[in-house]
Automatic annotation (TrEMBL):
Protein name as it appears in the record: Uncharacterized protein
Keywords: Signal
Organism whose genome encodes this protein: Arthrobacter glacialis
UniProt KW Signal keyword: yes
Superkingdom as given in the UniProt entry: Bacteria
Cleavable signal peptide: 1-24
C-alpha cells in the first residue's frame, strides 16, 4: 500500500514539475486583419474609464445597470400651504411687498438629486428661486387676512422604483383667507 501511495505521489510531483513558470507557452499567431487598434485619444480616456459589469452580472451586490425615472403626476400652478407673508386691514386694503427665497423640496425618491430630477423634467426649474411678492388686497372684512403663498409645479415620480414627490417653486399666489 505504501508503494502505491509513494508511486502516486512521485507521479504527481513529476506532473507538476513539468509545468514550470519558466517554460515557454504555446502561442497562436493572430490574424492581423482582426487586430483592433485604438487612437492615442481613446487610450488616454481608457485610463480613466470605469469597468462595466458584463451582461448577466445583475446579481452582484450594488449593481445598477441604469437609473430609471418615471413621472406619475405633474401638477403645474400648485399653491403650497406655507404663508410667505401676510397682512390684514379690516375695512380697507393692504399691500404685500417682500422678496423671499423659496427652495425646491424633494421627498423620498431613492436619493435623487435636484439636478437629476430637473434634467429628467426638461431642465426648466431652479433649485432656489427669489420670489418677489407684490400684491394689493381687495377690501378686507373683519377676520380676513391677505396671504402670499408659493406657487410651483408639484411632481410625483419614481426613481429606480422608489416613489417620491417634489415641489419646484415658480411664483407667488396672493389670496384672502379667514384669519
Amino acid at each position: 500500500m505504501k508503494k502505491i501511495l509513494a508511486a502516486g505521489a512521485i507521479a504527481l510531483a513529476m506532473m507538476f514539475a513539468s509545468v514550470s513558470p519558466g517554460m515557454a507557452a504555446e502561442t497562436a499567431t493572430a490574424d492581423k486583419s482582426s487586430e483592433v487598434t485604438f487612437s492615442p485619444e481613446v487610450l488616454k480616456h481608457a485610463e480613466n474609464a470605469t469597468e462595466f459589469a458584463p451582461a448577466g452580472d445583475e446579481s452582484r451586490a450594488g449593481f445598477v445597470p441604469y437609473a430609471t425615472f418615471q413621472v406619475t403626476s405633474k401638477q403645474p400652478n400648485t399653491r403650497m400651504t406655507n404663508v410667505l407673508t401676510s397682512c390684514r386691514n379690516p375695512g380697507g386694503t393692504c399691500t404685500l411687498s417682500k422678496t423671499v427665497t423659496q427652495t425646491a423640496s424633494i421627498t423620498a425618491g431613492g436619493g435623487i438629486s435636484f439636478s437629476v430630477l430637473n434634467a429628467n423634467l426638461g431642465g426648466g426649474y431652479s433649485n432656489a428661486v427669489a420670489l418677489g411678492v407684490s400684491c394689493t388686497s381687495p377690501k378686507l372684512s373683519f377676520g380676513q387676512v391677505y396671504n402670499a403663498y408659493p406657487m410651483g409645479t408639484f411632481v410625483m415620480f419614481k426613481y429606480n422604483g422608489v416613489a417620491g414627490t417634489a415641489f419646484l417653486p415658480t411664483g407667488v399666489d396672493c389670496r384672502v383667507a379667514a384669519g
